[in-house]
Design a protein that fits this description.
The complex is a heterodimer of chains A (86) and B (498). Chain A is mainly β and 86 residues long. Chain A contains one helix and four strands, in the order ββαββ. Helix content of chain A is 10%, strand content 31%. Chain B has 498 residues and is an all-alpha fold. Chain B has a single domain, classed as Ribonucleotide Reductase, subunit A (Orthogonal Bundle). In chain B, helix 5 packs antiparallel against helix 12 and helix 7 runs parallel beside helix 10. Chains A and B meet through strand 1 and strand 2 of A and helix 17, helix 19 and helix 22 of B.
């Protein structure tokens, strides 16, 4: 387990933010940690949607149960969190 | 007594150069300070400043200016305008003084560098007056707000701001270090007086003086006019330097100095002037939108000046023009959301009437920026102020030192421009920010932005309270909503129904 600071770009928000995640976090947990700083603050919740994580600028989402330690994220890596149907 | 007419002696006295006997020319004008760029002294002697003034003339005019501004201040002090002014206007003044006053002193250092080290005698002569100008601007813009310290400690940030690690101070220092303190005399004449002053502040101060008059603040209007008339003169030092560089095969270098300066000045404007014009100034006093102002006074006029000199419009001109619809809205929202981290009280400027104006000036505002403001407004009207305040830091650009922002809501579009160098990942808010960095990575690569400082443990405790401590913001100084959320009242019925 190790803390990893990342740069979060949340769908619908206006600013990139510093978010602390853990290498043992799954992508769903990463999405939740990022959402804490955007959803209900400047982004309206979309409860019918699922939050998915992908590398900034990529079109491919990471598997929801994939762990941070299984990615090649660099220190302060930028990731996008989007609302998806599945 | 007969006096020789000015025209007969002026050129002789302003063009003083001599052949050094005891030191070499290189020792007298070291390259890192003078920036002669291999162009012979005889060429620098052809530098022809468009605005000529003698010391007696200068002193007489400055005395008039000072007595005018100080008289207005003294006469209106009893009127206590500050006690009845709109809080948005008060915030404008407090933000302005903190960001500008001490940096005016800084500018006098840059002017003094030209006065001593410029190889062009005309530049040295004019920069002496420039150094005196900037010293006066520092003094007057510290003295005027000082009278208001009894009203709020935020006014004290006119002096304090630049001596702290507030994020806005780090951004301002990064910019001014780059164009003033860490450049040679020729680069200072181009980056400070041409890029920043001719391009931006001269016009900005004209607009600000008009805004102050409209808002009924005649003290501030006379102060700003007094400063602007100096700027109009000493801002003309860069043009002749550019002409010499271009005529001597250095156009590419001259263009790069101009372009870096313009881009960095624009970013600072987007966080200071943009929010003030479109959000803080009370609706009834707004003359032009920030975008209209920028297009008319900066984009069109400055492009003409560049062409007159034989320079091109910067390669990012189209990007900058597009950003006029985006960046300052993001900066404003950022400053508002992170309001405890600034020394002034941001005015939201997001009432139903404000939003109607914003939609008219920036079609699509409600579906983009408005989406974020909808959530903030609902939270305020449902007693959830806590959700309108931050729990983390915004990610900051490694060039501008300002948050990386983009269009939110239905038009969501934010891009992080990255660069990996020596094992470090740098983040930039735009292609142009990254380009500025790439012009001289050695100059910029060691700088730590606020996030870097946070991650290297310089901010303790490592949370927002530690960040506020690091920024030297006490409880009485931290920004709050300028109007105590009165602007959100207009949405209350709608929120309850929803």
């Amino acid at each position: 387990m190790a803390a990893l600071p990342i740069c979060a770009n949340f769908e619908g928000d206006f600013v990139l933010q510093l978010v602390g995640v853990d290498t043992e976090d799954t992508m769903d947990q990463v999405a939740e940690k990022c959402a804490h700083h955007s959803v209900g603050r400047r982004v309206a919740p979309q409860p019918q949607k699922i939050m998915r994580v992908r590398l900034h600028g990529s079109t491919e989402n990471y598997p929801r149960d994939m762990k941070v330690s299984d990615t090649n994220w660099r220190l302060t890596e930028t990731i996008d969190v989007i609302f998806a149907d599945q | 007594m007969y006096q020789i007419p000015r025209a007969e002696w002026y050129d002789l006295t302003r063009a003083i150069n001599w052949t050094p006997k005891y030191v070499t020319e290189e020792e007298l004008f070291p390259e890192e300070m003078s920036g002669g760029r291999g162009i012979p002294m005889s060429v620098w002697e052809t530098y022809d400043e468009p605005y000529k003034v003698t010391y007696p003339e200068y002193v007489a005019v400055q005395r008039e200016k000072d007595s005018g501004a100080y008289s207005v201040k003294a006469a209106l002090e009893r009127d206590a305008y500050v006690d009845r002014a709109d809080p948005g206007w008060i915030s404008t003044m407090i933000a302005h003084y903190g960001a500008i006053a001490v940096n005016e002193y800084g500018a006098s250092t840059g002017e003094a560098r030209m006065a001593r080290f410029a190889k062009a005698p005309g530049n040295r002569n004019m920069a002496v007056f420039g150094a005196l100008d900037e010293n006066r601007h520092g003094q007057i813009q510290l003295y005027f707000p000082h009278a208001n310290i009894k009203r709020s400690r935020q006014w004290d940030w006119a002096h304090k701001a630049m001596h702290t690690n507030d994020w806005a101070s780090i951004a301002a220092r990064s910019f001014f270090d780059d164009i003033i303190f860490a450049r040679d005399a020729v680069a200072v004449s181009i980056m400070l007086t041409f890029g920043f002053e001719t391009g931006f502040t001269n016009m900005q101060f004209l607009g600000l003086a008009a805004d102050a008059s409209n808002a009924g603040d005649h003290t501030f209007a006379s102060l700003i006019s007094s400063v602007q008339t100096d700027e109009a003169r000493h801002a003309q030092q860069g043009g002749p330097s550019l002409k010499i560089l271009i005529a001597n095969g250095k156009k590419e270098e001259a263009q790069a100095l101009v372009d870096v300066s313009i881009w960095r000045a624009w970013k600072l404007f987007s966080v200071l002037t943009g929010p003030i014009m479109d959000y803080y100034t009370p609706l009834e006093h707004r003359q032009q939108s920030f975008k209209e102002f920028m297009v008319e006074w900066i984009i069109i006029q400055f492009e003409r000046q560049l062409a007159d000199l034989g320079l091109d419009a910067p390669w990012f001109w189209e990007d900058l023009t597009k950003d006029l619809d985006i960046t300052h809205h993001g900066m404003h929202l950022g400053v508002y959301y992170w309001r405890p981290t600034v020394w002034w009280n941001p005015a939201a400027g997001a009432s139903p009437e404000d939003r109607e104006w914003l939609e008219e000036k920036y079609p699509g505002w409600n579906k983009t920026w408005g989406k974020c403001w909808d959530v903030i407004t609902d939270n305020l009207n449902n007693d959830r102020e806590d959700l309108t305040l931050p729990e983390t830091l915004p990610y900051v650009c490694n060039m501008s030192q300002l948050p990386i922002v983009g269009t939110p809501g239905n038009g969501w579009d934010i891009k992080d421009y990255q660069l990996e160098l020596d094992g470090r990942l740098y983040h930039f808010a735009s292609e142009a920010d990254r380009w500025c960095f790439e012009q001289d990575p050695e100059r910029y690569k060691q700088h730590q932005n606020l996030i870097d400082r946070f991650l290297t443990g310089q901010i303790q405790p490592a949370d927002l309270s530690g960040a506020l401590l690091y920024m030297s913001l006490g409880p009485e100084e931290m920004g709050k909503d300028a109007h105590d959320y009165a602007w959100a009242e207009g949405f209350k019925d709608k929120t309850k129904v929803a």
